[in-house]
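User: I'm preparing a small set of examples for a lab meeting where we compare how different chains pack in three dimensions. I only have the primary sequence for this one, and I'd like the structure in token form so I can line it up with the others. Please keep the answer compact; I'll paste it straight into my notes.
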Amino acid sequence: MTAMVSAYVGIGANLGNPEQTVRRAIVALQELTHTRFSASSSLFASAPIDATGSDFVNAVARIDTSLAAETLLSELQKIELAFGRERPFRNAPRTLDLDLLLYGQARIQSRDLEVPHPRMTDRAFVLRPLLELDAAIHIPGKGQAQDFLASVQDQRIKVLKHAAAPVLPCN
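Assistant: Understood. Below is the structure token output for the 171-residue chain.
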């Protein structure tokens, strides 16, 4: 294990009841070992990009973790599997998608993991909730997240539930 690192996780779903799934995923992130949950953004509805299916419900969570980035990714994938995630083809509709967006100021490129997430600056559904959590956040190797908002302004996205809404387990 490593020292505590602030990490940001993108959360998305567009199958089943995506709003409930995203809320339950936030609860699952709160239960990760060696991790302290810090905050979650509002819930957003967004149109699929390079994908098919219904609109997505998205959010971003900030956590502090002593898990190594690769271990954290593995834990995120376990949560996805527990929610019934399947990967029949690239960008398939999904019950749950958890993306490790940022891991401190690290720049990681391995066979299984790329951080910062390679498409995060191209996605309003990542940038808007990320900036809600930290308006001054810097993306290592790219620059200020807010500088990328203009390039995604044509992507359809709207706030569904503000962050002030309680996040409770959905049984």
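A couple of notes for your slides: The longest strand covers residues 56-65. Residues 23 and 167 are 6 Å apart (CA to CA).

User: Perfect, thanks.
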